[in-house]
């Protein structure tokens, strides 16, 4: 029987082509695992992983073959980030954000096919989209910078970075507070709002070279989460970007988002796969430890005690809960033909993201309780997993916000059903 790949623990019905791509991921896992503890201790992204993933062809995993990539889909990306999450969650997270850049190429091309751009816009949109994809396929690491420290009550992500017109291009000013691979990526794919716009219609995307004049790194990020992601963020002070390195057609960003199957730009569930991989690893480690170690007086495995049996049962339930939500979302976002309309898929994700990340954190918490003081080490697998998985509770949005939004969607729909018009009686 063929050995089971790590990614098949999540995507257990891989096609031969998907399995071939997953074998490339499997080949890099030993190196990722070997570097994980030191990278976490030093809070430093292992820059050698860029060449490792590039040489394996994985920087173009979800880029279509006609643009030089491997032709993978969201199923491939979820399997890859899950597998990497079992080895080095920090690298898995940074790799996820690199791959989110592909949406800036794939979705605009789909929007062109759907007739959302006019003849005058199509050449500009196509050129930028293809540039994103061909650069990824050629081994360019892209950091996707959207999030900022500025918050608003009505949106999960608020863009305050501005782009103003100048001769031959644009001037960018602002600060990006969150974005993996700071100082590592070749280009920062940066979202900014065009000068004079205050709505999403003015959102634009720019290739910002890592070493461009006016680009600086924010203070080191010493966060409660994945510490080796180079997640410092950047400052942009009068950074010039030429026209051919920008997508600045008003409304292009919102039109491209219409093509996603569910979650934002259509690949957000792959970040939940990172957390699930991390949870699977800490589960495996603590089960191995508890079954191998024995009580001094009875010789029985520690795992056989009633307390540990309860904890193991809870951990197993939580891990399976994460798998169920994640696999359901993956099915909804990749099935052909679609199983559910987009609003339902979106609603499911608003629930699913929180359900997965909370369940994964509970796995690490159970592992911590089950291992006792011997597992309470900052550099150990359990201690790292607790910190790594804590980030999932707040990244993008916490579970409470997702549930609130879903409740509002459900109740507002029901309210509408309660009202009807009737013909006037004669």
Q: Could you walk me through the main structural features you see in this protein, from its secondary elements to its overall organization?
A:
Strand 4 and strand 5 form a beta hairpin. Strands 1, 2, 3, 4, 5, 6, 7 and 8 form an eight-stranded mixed β-sheet that branches. The chain folds into two domains: 11-257, Butyryl-CoA Dehydrogenase, subunit A, domain 2, CATH 2.40.110; 269-412, Butyryl-CoA Dehydrogenase, subunit A, domain 3, CATH 1.20.140. The protein has 426 residues and is an alpha+beta fold. The chain has helices at 16-42, 48-55, 74-87, 89-100, 103-113, 122-137, 252-257, 269-292, 306-334, 342-371, 381-390, 399-417, and strands at residues 142-145, 162-166, 169-176, 187-194, 203-209, 215-217, 234-242, 246-247.
Q: Please give the share of residues in helix.
A: 40-55%
Number of helices: 12
Mean pLDDT: 91
Which overall shape is indicated by the principal axes computed on the Cα atoms? globular
Q: Give the helices and strands as they follow along the chain.
A: HHHHHHEEEEEEEEHHHHHH
Largest beta-sheet details? 8 strands, mixed
CATH class of the largest domain: Mainly Beta
**What is the β-strand count?**
8
Low-confidence region ranges = 151-156
Q: Could you give me the name of the CATH homologous superfamily of the largest domain?
A: Butyryl-CoA Dehydrogenase, subunit A, domain 2
How many discrete structural domains? Answer: 2
Work out the radius of gyration: 23 Å
Instruction: Report the span from N to C terminus.
Output: 77 Å
> Which percent range describes the beta-strand content?
5-15%
Determine the CATH topology of the largest domain: Butyryl-CoA Dehydrogenase, subunit A, domain 2
| Class of secondary structure makeup | alpha+beta
Assigned CATH architecture of the largest domain: Beta Barrel
